[in-house]
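Problem 3 from the worked examples.
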Amino acid sequence: MRELLEMGPPGRPVTTTVSLGVLTSLFQRFHAEDIVYCHWKSNEHLDASMLGETDFDLLVDRRAALALADILSQMNVKRFVVEPFHAYPGVEDYLCFDPDTGKLIHLHIHYQLTVGEKHLNGYRLPWEEIVLSTRMLDQRHEIYVADPHVELVLLVTRAAVKLRVRDLLLGMLRRTYFPHKMLGEFAWLARRIERDRLLDVARRLVGPRAAGLLVEMVDASPPKRRLLAFRRSSEPSLRSYRTYGAWGARVRRWRREARTLWWWVENRYYRVPKNSSRTCPHGGLTIAFVGADGAGKSTIANAIAEWLAEEIAVVPISPPERARMWARAWRARSHGKIVVLDGWARPRLPVDVVVKLHVSPDVAKQRRPEAPMERLHGQVATVKALAYPAGTRVLDFDATQPLERLLSDVKRGIWDSI
């Protein structure tokens, strides 16, 4: 997406927003197929989402699940799964690729509203019908979004049920219990609501007392310490929406926190670029980059690993010759991760995709002047002659083209191979 400035009457600039092409096509298809959905939270950041810079949180009518899956498959939008300690019922993860920018866009598909504290999300709010029935069409982006009154109730409820003892202690040092990032959303929504309409919606969802406190929070702006009072007042309405008992919730949360910490330590130890736990549901993938010295395979391999790791669990390995690295690559691939090998892949490990970077010996000599020409000739000949089993997909690229264009072509080829 980019913003264009046009001159509007009387000569004042008007901002026109243009979305990423893949997102425009996707939502147009949703509308054509009558998929009932809406972007249900963080609409303050909708511009950034349309840029592919933040995730999409879409609430979808569960009756449209099969039709939605068919549309996403036809548009090359691919489903991924997260580790059990990050997974929640009624939520699916999809990624789509924008060929014009090379960005991966994460679609968080919700069929039910599961909210709560981090590592637990212990409340299932049965409010899907009211969220979808009151949705509004955002005219700038041509995408359905939640009504600001409903979204504000959801925002404050989500913040309230996230409160833990540690948050209350930290809140004593601040003016509010609200997380900093939620304060901006609260203020943005507060400017878009009608007081009577908010009171009516909140009464239906969280009860009259909590509804009155919510209106007071809007009038106070910033909401200060009323969030704790809102939680206490809404608790009778929300108690029946709990999905775990008190001790079961604690045990589950502690286990998930410990597993998340271990995942983070493991990724830091292996120098994984990011900390995503999203894996391929149909099995892992091994991608090997091969090319002569000076072809830029290390540069391309590192760039691809960082690109994929933004949204997918990736294990980069360089150099891949040592036995310990092969064992690690095998385990990662077996667990559904994408393994990126910087170097020639020997038959000891199944290789799904081979990216061959072709360059002439003269160009390789210019890039690596210290390398003997005889060795470069041999490497170029070896890369051209490399043969792999029939099941291996081989992608050939001219490594002498500009780096930006080469990266774009490699990304497109890899995405089609996943």
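Problem 4, a separate protein:
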Amino acid sequence: MKSLLFTLVSLLSFTLFAQPYTSYFTGNHTDTTAIADYGICLMGGSTEDDRAMIWFLEKANGGDILIIRASGSDGYNDYFYTELGVEVNSVETIVFNNATASSDTYVLQKIANAEAIWMAGGDQSDYINYWKDTEVETLLNAHINTKKGVIGGTSAGMAVLGSSYFSAENGTVYSSEALEDPYNTFMTFGHNDFLEVPLLENSITDTHFSERDREGRLLTFMARMNNELGTPSFGIACDEYTAVCIDSSGLGAVYGEWPEYEDYAFFVQMNCETGNAPELMQQGAPFTWNFNAAATKVYKVGGTTNGENYLDLNDWETGNGGVWLHWYVENGLFYSEDGEAPNCEEVGITTIKQSSNKTLLKSVDVLGRMINSHYTGIVIDIFDDGSTQKRIGNK
């Protein structure tokens, strides 16, 4: 009997592992033709902030919501579909059980169809290993830049949204480790080789921020970015229960329950004054980036229930409800002091502009296959207002 039970358990485990993905579906199975509004939702981890999630769902304009993840199950389905009071066509969670799901036709079609895509928490190294340099990456970037849908993520899902990202391929890194040796074995990065989010150029994100004392490691991330890319670096970090929601105009509204709770977002930028660079950054040595105790300018913003506090990412200077700090590092130790706003021109980012005239720009085959010498696939017609039309192509 024990042998039979062992065999059954083994077969079940093999079957589950062999399945490339698991799908959990809620709502209408008929795809909608809704046109989403552009937006980015960066959630710091732990429990989601309901107001930020309502902001995210409303951007879908009644469309289809897709959650992609590499662990967990259907925890978002009912939450998104019924609990927040925003009407959407459907909510589907796809759990990637292994890397082969990234070439599965069903998975790719669902990414192409979605008006809103949410990347759940987990391990960002799975997302890099499963999605980078695959058709999933191509479709996610088309969702962001061509379809101009809304995208967001929490914890690991937020961590991969910057143009640079900490990949965690060798495990997490603590601030003490990063500050003691900015080139230690845990400091694994990617730069400009995965997601292309126009409002997050030259930026890296970090999560669970104050709770896990990640200020020191973020400064080390940014110094490495500046050294390896030769451009000014930026960072956006969120505490748990806190979100930054960025609309197409470049306004980053912060949601949370401050001042009742210490729910903060941190917008960190290199001090733009001439000559700013780390004084000592080499392997095996404690990190120093002082620059007269003002290496970085930080806008610390409490997240509110109505998102009234913000930073305008067009200039990284205009904001509401926050305070300016100076963060710096001396001989492997992190310091924070009261600061002042930057005083340089042309610091900000490029915003998204959308045309009001709907003109067919091009058609893109995203799921083509050769079958018996006939070409079949899903073709997306792309219009200049960001909307798309899906159809089956043959030739």
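Solution to problem 4. The chain has two domains: 36-338, 360-394. Confidence is low (pLDDT under 50) at residues 1-16, 351-395.
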